[in-house]
Amino acid sequence: MDPKNPENQEDQQPPLTLPIASISFALSTILPTHFLTPPKIYKPNKLKIPTQISSLSNLTLSSSFPPTKPNFKSTISSNPLHNTLTLNPLRPSQPSNTAALRRASIIWFRNDLRVHDNECLNSAYNESMSVLPVYCFDPRDYGKSSSGFDKTGPYRATFLIESVSDLRKSLQARGSDLVVRIGKPETVLVELAKAVGAEAVYAHREVSYDEVKEEDKIESVMKDEALEVKYFWGSTLYNVDDLPFKLEEMPTNYGGFREKVQGLEVRKTIEALDQLKGLPTRGDVEPGEIPSLVDLGLNPSATMGQNGKQTANASLVGGENEALQRLRKFAAECQAQPNKENKDGTTDSIYGANFSCKISPWLAMGCLSPRSMFDELKKSTSRTISAASGKKDGGSGTGLNWLMYELLWRDFFRFITKKYSAAKQNSAAPVTACVGSAA
Question: Which residues form the Photolyase/cryptochrome alpha/beta domain (predicted)?
Answer without folding.
Answer: 103-237
